[in-house]
From TrEMBL:
Coiled coil: none annotated. Residues 25-241 form the Metallo-beta-lactamase domain. The keyword DNA damage does not apply. Pfam families: Lactamase_B. It catalyses: 3',5'-cyclic UMP + H2O = UMP + H(+); 3',5'-cyclic CMP + H2O = CMP + H(+). It comes from the Bacteria. Counteracts the endogenous Pycsar antiviral defense system. Phosphodiesterase that enables metal-dependent hydrolysis of host cyclic nucleotide Pycsar defense signals such as cCMP and cUMP. This is Hydrolase glyoxylase. InterPro entries: Metallo-B-lactamas, RibonucZ/Hydroxyglut_hydro, Sec-metab_biosynth-thioest. One of its GO terms (molecular function) is hydrolase activity. Keywords: Hydrolase. The lineage of its organism: Bacteria, Bacillati, Bacillota, Bacilli, Bacillales.
Amino acid sequence: MTARGVRMAPGVYCIEIPTPFHVGSVNVYVLKEEHVTLVDVGPLTEEAWETLQEGLASIEIRMEEIKQIILTHHHVDHCGLLERVRRVSGARTLAHPLARPYVQLDESFMAYHDEFFTHLYSQSGVPADKMIIIEKFQKLMQTFSQPSQIDGLLKHEQIVPLLPEWQVLYTPGHSQSHLSLYREKDRLLIGGDHIIKHISSNAFIEPPRDGSRSRPLTLVQYRTALQMCADMEINQVFAGHGEPVTNHRELISSRLQKNWDRTNALRQLLASGEKTAYELAALLFPTLYEKEMPLTLSETIGHIDLLMILHQVDVKERDGVLYYHL
């Protein structure tokens, strides 16, 4: 079946790109104005490449007409095809500064990334034989993306180049590089993976940047960015996966409440005695914790962060492992 671009709003088209990942297909958006902008590109697979070309052709756009590419964030299902699209189109790439080393596949950063997670997972009590998950991340990046570059950097509340009606919003949490785009005249948000209708976005743990020694509290960031959006007038959120969101305030309220539900679950688990983050993840996500370890550990550690901020949980270190207790 030939892929088609679907008109979502004036000047906004969506192309659904297949991915090999559990999340399913990813939505990329075409802003068809005087200058064509592509928001995200999909993963580096032949199927994704062919689908993107077919989708563009269906809305009468040639790849060579794309003037700029905006990345909502650096995850491979959103940016893997970047270099291939750049080579054909000659388009400039715009993204948040923190996306740059991931997009470039910078070797020194990737080594630092591995060191960070080796330390984090060791502190979390992950068994030595499970540390292979770190190598799997590198393989994922190398398989479904290739080194590319970012030409221009975007910051919170700036007007998007070539798109005077669109504004950049910095919406970190799911990733440190996450951006959303807002058009005030019809209250549209292109939200990447910040707000998704059918699933709650994971606030992935990432290494600290800009010389900071402390890792970012990603779930706290995510909740803050969600609240910012809840305070905005938004008619529709065009998400990175799935259908548009038309009730953003109700959805955000539900997601924020689920965070507190999970902290309550953690307190109940700790009532029986101290536990590591890995042990808590296994109890919270018994069918997922091994095959989706980055996701489940990020979720667990993020909620532990909330409890630590509220002084409802304490921690002690023993032999390099962190043990949490009420």
